[in-house]
C-alpha cells in the first residue's frame, strides 16, 4: 500500500515537472536604450514630449490634413476594429483561470384528461468543471492572446504612421508639381515669344528655316513636359483623395510650391536602437514571440550605433 502511494506521488511530480519543461517563457533581453535622445545638432527641443510630432513641420495646413485623415481613413478604422476583436478574444481566453459553472433548471406540469389530480415536476442541476493545467497549455493560450493584443495594437500604430507619411508625401509632391507646372508654363511662354521673334526674323530673311523649325519644336517639347507634369499632379491628387475615402474629384488644400525657407528640425544623428521602437518592428515581435521566443535576438541586432 505504501509503495502504491509512493508511485502515485512520483507520478504527480513527473507530470508537474513535464509541465515546467514545456514552458518556455519569453524573456526580453535588457538593452541599454535611453527613453529619449538629444543631440547638439538639433537641440533639446527636437520633438520633445509632442504626440502630434507632425506639427514640427511648421505647416498648419498639413497638420490639419493629417488630423482629418486619421479620423476618416478606412484602413485605420479597420485596424482599430481588429484591435478591439483581439482584446475581446484575450478576455475570453483569460476565463480558463477559473472553474466553469453550469446551472440549469426546469419545471413541468401534467394532468390526465380522464380526470385525476395534476402532477408537477421540478428539477435543477449544478455542475462545476475545471481543467488542470498540468502541461501549461492554458497558460500558453493566455500568453499567446496577450501577445496577439500587443501585436495588433502595434499594427494599428504602424497603419497610422504609414498613413501620416503618405499624406505628407502626397502633400509635398503636389506642392512640388504645382511649382514645376508654374515654372514650365513660364518657360513655355518664353518659347512662344522666341518663336514669334524667329518668325519675324525669318520673314525678314534674317533667320533660316532650321531655326524656325527648332523654335516650333521647342514649344512642342515644353507642351509635352507640361502635360507630363500635370498627369503626375493629377495622380498625386487622386492618391491623396483616396486616403480620405473621397472621390478623386474632391480636392484637398494644396500649396502653390515648396517653401525653401521652411524650418523643419531634422535629427542628423539617431541611435540605431530606435529602430526597435518602430511599431512595425514591435508588431512583428509580438506576433513571433509566442511561437519562437528563442528567435528574438534583437538585443544583439539593435546595438548602440548611430546613423
Automatic annotation (TrEMBL):
Residues 1-20 form the signal peptide. GO terms for molecular function: efflux transmembrane transporter activity. It is found in: Cell outer membrane. It is a lipid-anchor. Gene3D superfamilies: Outer membrane efflux proteins (OEP) (1.20.1600.10). InterPro entries: MdtP/NodT-like, OMP_efflux. Residues 219-246 form a coiled coil. The keyword Coiled coil applies. PROSITE patterns: PROKAR_LIPOPROTEIN. It comes from the Bacteria. Keywords: Coiled coil, Signal. Belongs to the outer membrane factor (OMF) (TC 1.B.17) family. This is Probable efflux pump outer membrane protein ttgC. It comes from Serratia rubidaea (Serratia marinorubra).
Amino acid at each position: 500500500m505504501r509503495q502504491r502511494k509512493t508511485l502515485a506521488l512520483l507520478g504527480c511530480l513527473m507530470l508537474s515537472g513535464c509541465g515546467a519543461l514545456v514552458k518556455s517563457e519569453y524573456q526580453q533581453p535588457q538593452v541599454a536604450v535611453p527613453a529619449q535622445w538629444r543631440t547638439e545638432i538639433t537641440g533639446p527641443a527636437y520633438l520633445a514630449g509632442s504626440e502630434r510630432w507632425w506639427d514640427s513641420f511648421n505647416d498648419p495646413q498639413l497638420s490639419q490634413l493629417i488630423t482629418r485623415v486619421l479620423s476618416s481613413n478606412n484602413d485605420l478604422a479597420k485596424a482599430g476594429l481588429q484591435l478591439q476583436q483581439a482584446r475581446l478574444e484575450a478576455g475570453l481566453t483569460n476565463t480558463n483561470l477559473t472553474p466553469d459553472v453550469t446551472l440549469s433548471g426546469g419545471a413541468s406540469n401534467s394532468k390526465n384528461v380522464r380526470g385525476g389530480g395534476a402532477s408537477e415536476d421540478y428539477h435543477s442541476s449544478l455542475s462545476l468543471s475545471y481543467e488542470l493545467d498540468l502541461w501549461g497549455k492554458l497558460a500558453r493560450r493566455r500568453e499567446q492572446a496577450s501577445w496577439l493584443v500587443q501585436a495588433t495594437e502595434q499594427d494599428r500604430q504602424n497603419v497610422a504612421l504609414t498613413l501620416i507619411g503618405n499624406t505628407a508625401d502626397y502633400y509635398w509632391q503636389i506642392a512640388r508639381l504645382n511649382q514645376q507646372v508654374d515654372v514650365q508654363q513660364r518657360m513655355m511662354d518664353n518659347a512662344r515669344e522666341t518663336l514669334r521673334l524667329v518668325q519675324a526674323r525669318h520673314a525678314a530673311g534674317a533667320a533660316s528655316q532650321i531655326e524656325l523649325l527648332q523654335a516650333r519644336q521647342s514649344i512642342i517639347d515644353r507642351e509635352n513636359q507640361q502635360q507630363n507634369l500635370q498627369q503626375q499632379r493629377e495622380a498625386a491628387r487622386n492618391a491623396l483623395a483616396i486616403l480620405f475615402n473621397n472621390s478623386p474629384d474632391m480636392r484637398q488644400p494644396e500649396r502653390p510650391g515648396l517653401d525653401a525657407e521652411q524650418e523643419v528640425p531634422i535629427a542628423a544623428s539617431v541611435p540605431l536602437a530606435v529602430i526597435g521602437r518602430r511599431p512595425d518592428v514591435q508588431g512583428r515581435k509580438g506576433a513571433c514571440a509566442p511561437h519562437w521566443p528563442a528567435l528574438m535576438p534583437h538585443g544583439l541586432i539593435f546595438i548602440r550605433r548611430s546613423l
